[in-house]
Structure formats: C-alpha cells, structure tokens
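R.M. (postdoc): so does anyone remember the format we settled on? I'll just put the structure tokens first.
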C-alpha cells in the first residue's frame, strides 16, 4: 500500500509518498515541498492559492516517487479544534471482552459527548479502560468481565474549516482519506513508547503556529494551540532592526541564537531604502529573538499548568518543528518548564530523505506513519472508522457495522435518534450478503413451497 501524507503548514506544504510493505515496514519513496500560499496561522484564507501550493508539492513528490498512491492523509491545524473528555459503560453478558464489546463501549462514550455547535469529531481516543471496577487496563481485549467502561479524549474540528480544507485539497485533484491533528501526527513521528507511558508533552514550534499535545499512557489527554511561530521572530527582527522582512529572515537563519553575547556587527539593508545599509550587533539580534521565544514558551508553560496534567509528566517536554533550530532553545525550555527538555527529529525509517531529518518535517513524517498503522491502539478516526492494533479495517467496516446483533435498547438506552443512525449504518451490511446465508434462505424458501 502506498500512502500520501500532506502537511499543510502556514509557511510550507510538504507531501510525502511512502510505501508500507507486507511486513509492516514503511519506506519513503518521494517528497515534495512548496511554499504555502493562501494560509495564515494554520487557517485557509484563499482556497485557490492554497490548492496551487498543495498541487505543486504533490506533483514534486509524485515525480520523485515515480508511482501513484492509494491512501491520502492530511494534517489539520490546531487552530480549528476543540477537545473534551467523555465516558461510556456497557454490560458484557458473555463475560468475554472482544473487539465488538470494546467498540460498543467506545461508541457509547462517543454518543455521550456534548459536541460544540458547528463542530465535527476528528479523533475519539480512548485513554483508560475499566473492567469490573479495575482501572488503567492497557488493553481489555480477550479479558473476562461483566462490565466494561472506557474514558475517551475527543477532538473536534470546526465544520466550515474542514470543508474549506477539503475543497482546497480536492481542487488539487486529491480526495482525502483521513484528517489528522498535526500535533498528533508529530507525536507519532518523535515519541517513544516509554515516553508516552511516563507522560510527555509534545510541542511543535512551527512557522506561524505552536501546537501542544499532552500524552499520558496510550493517548492524548490534552491539546492546545498558539497562533505564534518563527514568522513572528522575523517580524520582530524586521521592526527592531529597521530592515526588510527577507533580510530579517536571513539574519535569523544565519545568526539566530538565544545566548549570543558577541558585539560583532553585521550589515543589514534599511527598510524603505534597501540600497543603504546600517550596522547592528549580534547581541541585539539575540535579544530580540530571546524576548519572543521566552514569551512563547511562557504562554505554553501556562497552558500546561492550566491543563491539570503537569504533575503527570514524567518524561518531560519534547520540542519539534522548525523553530527548534535556534541555538540555546533547549536550555531556555528547561528553565521555563522546570523539567527536562529534548529537541526531537522524526524517527529514522527506510528511505528517509536527508531533508526530512529536520524537526520541521515531523508532522509530515507522522502522517505517513499514521497511514501505515502507527496510531493509538484504539481509535475512531475522522471517517468514524474504528482502528485498532495497528490494523486498518476494510473499507466500509466502520464502528457501527461492527456492532453485534442484540437488543439496541441495552446499548443506547432508547435514544431513538441514535438508533436510527445505527440502523442506517447496519443496513449497509445487507448490500453484500453472505453467500452461505443466501443459500440457506433460498433452501428454506423452496422447502416451504414444497409443503
């Protein structure tokens, strides 16, 4: 299976084509990068321009890979989303917990959630299973019990923003198979299992946005978004040093540091009179950068404090994204968050292009890994399909079609609207009836005609 991952960022669009082998390994075949147009702080502001950037990146990736793709995974900015927790309980008459019982529990938790108006569910992520009152069951599959409860973290996205994103991608000639929150994708690319178990915060410091995800155990427990990124550093430098933005960007890339004390002078063009130059010290450049980065990390630290999960973070902070290339960032992060900080690049994998070994491409790499099956052990995805155990269910087998035949009132407590939705979904099963069932029905019909 070949997978196309498209990370639509505020400064660049990155498309990666990868192939998943029968053994489950993922190999990158091609990559394409285009400058973002029609986007601001993760939000599409011009569909036509955005689609051109997406199409350009995809075209470059296809030329490099030399082949087509079967599955398309697209990132979604945290600026679109809200999140909440929910829970669901089901009885297990057979006392044998299988995938159908787990599905029912997750589905009940899904239905019990109060979704903000004009929002749609993006991810339903279980973070705690409880069997007969015993909490923190990592995986209840195959266990014995009479009662199963699940607690889930639900991430929703603004409906209008989703439609605009889908339109931009469709104009580029692509149909989306899955949408994935960008901080979720980044965490797939940079986190290890032990870090998730201990509790860890992933912060993707991007071009115009910062996205945070708190992992405790198997799942995301909290996520947040900040509309600030490395572009803001460039703007600060441009204003403070009275130089055009392109010169400020060059100075940031070449001399960007949070701990320079050098009085060395550099020449920069003057804004409004680019034929003239003036001299500024590297210390001044460093002070401007430091002020913006310190403010950004302080806001993110306050967000972590508000989350209520800071005391559950045992593995510290993982920073990724393009802004992490600033010298001295880790040391500043240690001081502000008051816990260990590491800078993370995407994990090594076969065919990983040298350009992708950069923290700025963590989300894009995470998208193809998600498409190849590296997601939360159990999840209802953006298409309302259940994904579990690194298995991608067959097309059409969504969470509703997995429900067993039983009294619907036992599952949904008589909610007529939900039951109707469930009946409609179950009706899809009859489109492709089992051959044995058809044969038995025909045989019974003939016997009744004889007698």
């Amino acid at each position: 299976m070949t997978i196309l991952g498209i990370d639509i960022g505020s400064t660049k669009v990155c498309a990666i084509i990868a192939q998943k082998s029968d053994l489950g390994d993922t190999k990158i075949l091609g990559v394409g990068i285009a400058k973002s147009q029609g986007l601001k702080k993760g939000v599409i502001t011009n569909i036509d321009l955005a689609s051109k950037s997406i199409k350009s990146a995809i075209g470059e990736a296809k030329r490099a890979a030399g082949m087509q793709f079967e599955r398309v995974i697209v990132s979604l900015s945290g600026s679109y989303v809200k999140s909440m927790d929910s829970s669901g309980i089901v009885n297990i008459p057979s006392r044998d917990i299988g995938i159908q019982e787990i599905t029912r529990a997750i589905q009940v938790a899904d239905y019990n959630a109060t979704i903000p108006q004009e929002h749609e569910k993006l991810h339903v992520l279980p973070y705690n299973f409880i069997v007969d009152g015993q909490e923190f069951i990592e995986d209840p599959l195959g266990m014995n019990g009479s009662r199963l409860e699940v607690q889930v973290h639900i991430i929703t996205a603004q409906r209008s923003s989703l439609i605009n994103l889908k339109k931009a991608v469709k104009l580029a000639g692509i149909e989306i198979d899955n949408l994935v929150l960008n901080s979720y994708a980044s965490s797939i690319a940079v986190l290890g299992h032990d870090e998730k178990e201990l509790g860890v915060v992933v912060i993707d410091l991007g071009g115009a946005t910062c996205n945070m995800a708190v992992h405790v155990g198997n799942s995301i427990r909290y996520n947040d978004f900040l509309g600030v990124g490395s572009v803001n550093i460039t703007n600060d430098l441009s204003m403070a040093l009275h130089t055009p933005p392109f010169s400020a960007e060059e100075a940031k890339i070449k001399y960007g540091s949070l701990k320079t004390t050098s009085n060395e002078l550099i020449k920069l063009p003057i804004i409004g009179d680019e034929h003239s130059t003036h001299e500024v010290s590297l210390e001044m450049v460093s002070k401007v950068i430091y002020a913006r980065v310190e403010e950004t990390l302080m806001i993110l630290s306050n967000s972590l404090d508000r989350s209520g999960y800071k005391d559950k973070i045992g593995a510290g902070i993982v920073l990724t994204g393009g802004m992490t290339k600033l010298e001295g960032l880790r040391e500043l992060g240690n001081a502000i968050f008051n816990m260990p900080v590491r800078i993370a690049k995407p994990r090594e994998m076969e065919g990983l292009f040298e350009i992708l070994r950069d923290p700025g491409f963590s989300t894009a790499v995470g998208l193809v890994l998600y498409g190849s099956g590296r997601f939360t052990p159990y999840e209802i995805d953006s298409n309302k399909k259940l994904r579990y155990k690194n298995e991608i269910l067959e097309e059409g087998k969504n969470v509703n079609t997995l429900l067993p035949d039983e009294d619907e009132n036992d599952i949904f407590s008589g909610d007529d609207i939900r039951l109707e939705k469930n009946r409609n979904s179950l009706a899809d099963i009859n489109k492709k009836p089992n051959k044995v069932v058809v044969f038995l029905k025909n045989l019974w019909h003939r016997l009744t005609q004889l007698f």
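R.M.: ...and that's the designed sequence above, right after the tokens. Also worth knowing: The mean pLDDT is 85. The chain has three domains: 1-85+155-191+346-402, 193-343, 405-451.
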